[in-house]
Amino acid sequence: MVFARSDRPRIPTAIKILIAGGFGAGKTTMVGAVSETRPLRTEEVLTDRGVGVDDLTAVEAKRTTTVAMDFGRITLSDEYVLYLFGTPGQERFWFVWDELAEGSLGAVILADTRRLADCFPSIDYFERRGTPFVVAVNCFEGSPTFELDEVRLALQLNPSIPIIMCDARKRESSREVLIALVKHSARLRAEPVSS
Amino acid sequence: MNGPDEPGDDHWIDPEIIRPYVVTRGRTRPAHGRFDLISMALAVGHPPGPDAGLDPEHLRILRLCREPKSVAEIAAHLNLPAGTIRVLLGDLFDRELVSAQEPQSEVDMRDMKMYRAVLDGLRSL
After folding, report:
1. How far, in Å, CA of A182 to CA of A170, rounded?
2. What CA–CA distance (Å, rounded) separates A70 from A41?
């Protein structure tokens, strides 16, 4: 006769997806649209690496920076929980990204057609790091409409990288973006299962 | 007029900056474990009594973690930085009051079973 070793609820494994893009591109909106709760905010106090700091009188005193991140949670099953993190927008907080990107399933880069160039830094970052990503063009009311091919050209995006139109306010639309990212990441990284 | 106990402008310090250090008694790293932002914690064992020597923040974490919660969620609910939560979770882990689950690592990102589970979960939202 077999007894369960424990009647404790099992602890699910957490997976994270990053939502990147320029300031005002709709990162927190997308997190809120698919999350099971309203977006939460966490603060991480980080020690500045101090590159370029030339104040020798303060060698002992490390500078610290507080970075706020908005995030949401989707309980996928008893086994997995998905966390969506909006990346801090300011460029000076980029050293946080490594910590966030480490172990992530991938990233959604939200593009705002009024300020397409704002997503260049994110594209560069994830390309360099080898993190799978998709570009989601957030269609605001009144924003100029482009064909996806035009946006791909403007962003000099590799043909293998998926690009999708979306409305970050809509749950269904944001969910489709996440599904596209998971499929893309699986194509790039998952090993085929022999069956 | 400022009395002797009233701080002048020079001494005024934002309590929101002080609180994280007070609750950890100045510690910035947990005694045990890494506790990533999405490490999951779950309260285990019997709830400790008032003589267990735990701080109110420890007890709040235990109440919150009756269901599995990530470091980031605990931090958001307690309105404390994630680093502070890591230290407090380390204390609870030491006393075997929480168990923890580290997140999916970069290596595990080759696991097709994981991708299928995530896709199934998203499709059924």
Report:
1. 19
2. 4
- Tell me the C-alpha distance between A124 and A121, whole Å: 5
CA atoms in the 13 A half-sphere facing the CB of B52: 15
Distance CA B75, CA A24 (A): 25
**In the numeric block, which tokens belong to residue B74?**
């605990």
Chain B residues whose beta carbon lies within 8 Å of the beta carbon of residue A192: 112
Cα-Cα end-to-end distance for chain A: 31
CA distance B13 to B27: 19
B98-101 β-sheet, strand order: B69-70, B40-43, B98-101
Q: Kindly calculate the radius of gyration of chain A based on its CA atoms and give it in whole angstroms.
A: 19
d(CA A79, CA A17): 17
- From first to last of its 125 residues, chain B has per-residue pLDDT tens of 444 455 455 566 666 667 777 778 777 777 666 778 999 999 998 888 878 889 999 999 999 999 999 999 999 999 998 889 999 999 999 999 999 998 877 767 889 999 999 999 999 98
Nearest to B103 among A44, A103, A189 (CB): A103
CA A157, chain centre distance (Å): 18
Nearest CB partner across the interface for A175, out of B113, B117, B122? B122
- What CA–CA distance (Å, rounded) separates A27 from A70? 9
Q: Which residue among A44, A82, A171 places its CB closest to the CB of B82?
A: A44
Q: How large is the ipTM? A: 0.83
Identify the residue among B14, B29, B38 best suited for mutation to test binding to A, counting A beta carbons within 10 A and taking the highest. B38
From A102's Cα to the closest Cα of chain B, the distance in A is 7
Which chain A residues are closer than 8 Å to B42 by Cβ? Answer: 8-9, 11
| DSSP, res A9 | P
CA-CA distance, B75 to A34, in Å (whole number)? 21
